[in-house]
Design goal:
single chain; alpha+beta; 10 strands
């Protein structure tokens, strides 16, 4: 009897009958012998599944349907023994194993099975998040998925060959790892603490966020009808491999744009979330697919400082956020609380886009400490980071419209502001926002304005950042902008 772990790739050796698969089988057997020591009890329960005669029967099957598929399922069981599906989960270990099985099924080469498993996992994540201490339990479960799956050190070297993901389960785990590397958000753009940015928990938090984003994509119909999309057809491309290709392409385009100001072959404005209001504008000048001069109409915002601590009783005014440890999360929670009904009128409003951040100059009068100073008061000027949500359009019409908006609760720190229409130069880009990305894109923006014969930066203007998508939107669907107020060069600054 031969007792060893044979992964899905070895099973396909007998199905696809190609010369290179002999070497793949040998690699699988070597990796299994070196990286995995099966439990004696598990082996004894599954000895019959892995006998030489069973493998020979599969090899001889010229129409490998049920027998080969059964063998694949049985080998998967030996790798990750599943709890009795008719028995209720007895605790955390059962739930960990069940989620690991669902994640493995989400990496299936067949689109229907992948979508079904990913959808179920996303539903369970959403349910757990709503329970008491759900965020902590969810973090532990996602950490377990990562450590046992894509971040496992046991993946052999040959899984780096992407095309093997068509045949091998472990090659698809490696594809998930590479996709995670491409889609994990950078350290928080709002944190200046390098120790926090580089801490292991911070890294895990960003990794968990990327994993949930990937599962959301796999659970959607994004790949339906796409060229090469996976289905039940032979030689189709597994969804996780298509997703890796999209992530890699977006990463290359974003790096090239930051480095060379190169044009892109798509209309990035199509990445705006459908059905959400956004400030209205007309395009005055378009130099490329990513740089344009816009004339904005009036709009209104609610704003809060990102530089000040939230009050101790902020639960009365703020909405709960899914990632409360991010430095910008308290400000986001304050604005979401106001917009969704925690205001004087208890009035919920429609969600809008984008979320705006910019620097605002604050001037405060202070009494000097030096008694010999002849001046009674001096002025202190500082820069404060502000986050803003766009208000619904019924409040955009000059100051009269803003007066109709619900008033923020006392102590919330939320203020309402009317923005008069102005001309702005804008650079659009995809991916995630970080301090480094903002710095690079702002440099690109100012450089293109410097070379523009018609427009110049308005006096005292600062760069604003706009982010249009929710945190779990993958990089290739994200739209961000840096912009600054401008004037025609024919006018005096």
């Amino acid at each position: 009897m031969i007792n060893t772990r044979i992964s899905t790739s070895a099973m396909f050796v007998f199905k696809i009958r190609r010369p290179f698969t002999v070497a793949l089988l040998l690699l699988e057997l070597t990796a299994a012998a070196n990286a995995w020591i099966p439990s004696v009890n598990v082996l004894s329960r599954n000895r019959a599944y892995f006998s030489a005669t069973t493998l020979a029967a599969a090899a001889a099957d010229t129409n490998p349907t049920k027998s080969t598929k059964d063998l694949i399922r049985q080998t998967d069981y030996l790798k990750n023994p599943r709890p009795d599906e008719n028995k209720e989960d007895s605790g955390t270990k059962d739930q960990q194993q069940r989620w690991l099985n669902l994640l493995q099924d989400a990496l299936s080469p067949e689109q229907e099975e992948s979508t079904k498993a990913a959808s179920k996992l996303i539903a369970e994540i959403s349910t757990l998040r709503q329970t008491k201490n759900g965020e902590t339990a969810l973090g532990d479960l996602l950490n377990h998925l990562l450590s046992r799956g894509p971040d496992s050190p046991a993946l052999p070297f040959w899984t780096r060959l992407g095309f093997l993901g068509r045949f091998s389960q472990r090659a698809r785990w490696a594809s998930l790892r590479r996709t995670l590397n491409l889609t994990t958000p950078p350290p928080s753009s709002d944190s200046d603490d390098e120790v926090v940015q580089q801490s292991e928990e911070e890294r895990r938090r960003r990794r968990r966020r990327a994993l949930v984003g990937i599962l959301r994509t796999l659970s959607s119909d994004e790949f339906t009808g796409e060229a090469g999309a996976s289905s039940n057809k032979k030689n189709s491309v597994p969804p996780i491999l298509l997703l890796e290709q999209k992530a890699g392409r977006e990463d290359r385009l974003n790096k090239r744009q930051r480095r060379t100001n190169n044009n892109r072959d798509e209309d990035l404005t199509l990445r705006r979330p459908a059905g959400l209001e956004t400030p209205k504008y007309s395009v005055l000048e378009k130099k490329s697919s990513t740089f344009e001069i816009r004339r904005y109409e009036d709009f209104a915002v609610c704003s809060v400082s990102m530089s000040r601590d939230r009050p101790a009783d902020s639960s009365k005014t703020d909405a709960k956020v899914s990632e409360p440890t991010i430095k910008g999360a308290p400000a986001f929670g304050a604005l979401a609380g106001y917009l969704f009904g925690k205001n004087e009128q208890n009035q919920a409003m429609k969600m809008t886009t984008p979320v705006l951040t910019n620097m605002k100059t604050i001037t405060a009068e202070i009494t000097p400490e030096d008694e010999n100073n002849n001046s009674d008061k001096t002025k202190k000027v500082k820069q404060e980071k502000i986050m803003s949500f766009v208000l619904p359009s019924e409040y955009w019409k000059n100051e009269t419209g803003l007066a109709l908006a619900p008033q923020p609760l006392e102590g919330s720190g939320v203020t309402l502001e009317h923005f008069r229409g102005e001309d702005r130069a804008v650079v659009m880009f995809g991916g995630y926002v970080s301090n480094k990305v903002i710095e690079q894109q702002s440099k690109n923006l100012l450089q293109q304005l410097k070379q523009n014969p018609n427009w110049q930066v308005a006096e005292g203007a600062t760069v604003a950042v706009a982010q249009y998508n929710d945190p779990f939107t993958p990089p290739w669907k994200r739209l961000n902008e840096v912009s600054i107020a401008v004037l025609p060069k024919s006018k005096t600054l």
